[in-house]
Amino acid sequence: MTTDRRVLVHPDKDSLAGAVAARFITKIIDILDENDEAHVVLSGGSVNTAVLAAIRNSPAQNNVDWKRISFWWGDERFVEAGSSDRNDGQAREALLDHIPLDEAKVHAFASSDEIPDIDEAAASYAAELEAAAPDGQRYPRFDIMFLGVGPDGHIASLFPGLSGITETEKTVIPVLNSPKPPPLRLSLTLPVIRSADRIWLVMAGSDKASPLGLALAGASIEEVPAAGAEGRKRTVFFVDQDAAAEVPENLIAPSY
Ligand SMILES: O=C(O)[C@H](O)[C@@H](O)[C@H](O)[C@H](O)COP(=O)(O)O
């Protein structure tokens, strides 16, 4: 494990969501002070959705120039538009529908009714990433990428035991046999995830203790995909007390 991975522990899921929201607002304001624009990657899952709701409910979010932020997703369930399964719908409901953003900068994956062929849907998102990339690059430089982690250690839709986690050529892959329903998904690949400046993994609950402990202990990415989530500048595991049960004491940074 490298030295720029940190674990910040909060007492419970609510305080965790509030703390990550506050930190996001502060950090994104700093990033927008120094740059014309920012790219943020959102995640599905209950914990990250709670973070988005906490951002929405924070008065400090009025100080964010939302129109300069591009929003992306790490993965998506390949279902029809409007399905409550879709990560983008959950993020819109929790935050995006309530802030003054630039709709042209909201980059949701295609739904199965927009592009019925899943390979084409993956290629379409890859093209969208490339269109927003600096010259000669295949994807933007992501400032902050949020990730959730499943009890099995999956991140985005890269699951243990499936070949997607070792994909190094494609930037976006179709997933045809997700062990967690729904089976059809679209996902960024690990090289794209690892290109982010900051990866923020947000985890709550005792079922996350084992994947977190294994990821920090250097498990293989094939067994615990979360072990491969390392950002260019910083990787932070924001966790609650229950998820922290198997984290070695010396890796826990003071949370303030
Ligand atoms: O696509 C999915 O099935 C979920 O979005 C999943 O990947 C989720 O992000 C993690 O399982 C963490 O979920 P929680 O935040 O609810 O623990």
Automatic annotation (TrEMBL):
It comes from the Bacteria. GO terms for biological process: carbohydrate metabolic process; pentose-phosphate shunt. Its EC number is 3.1.1.31. Belongs to the glucosamine/galactosamine-6-phosphate isomerase family. 6-phosphogluconolactonase subfamily. One of its GO terms (molecular function) is 6-phosphogluconolactonase activity. This is 6-phosphogluconolactonase. It comes from Subtercola boreus. It catalyses: 6-phospho-D-glucono-1,5-lactone + H2O = 6-phospho-D-gluconate + H(+). Pfam families: Glucosamine_iso. InterPro entries: 6-phosphogluconolactonase_DevB, 6PGL, Glc/Gal-6P_isomerase, NagB/RpiA_transferase-like.
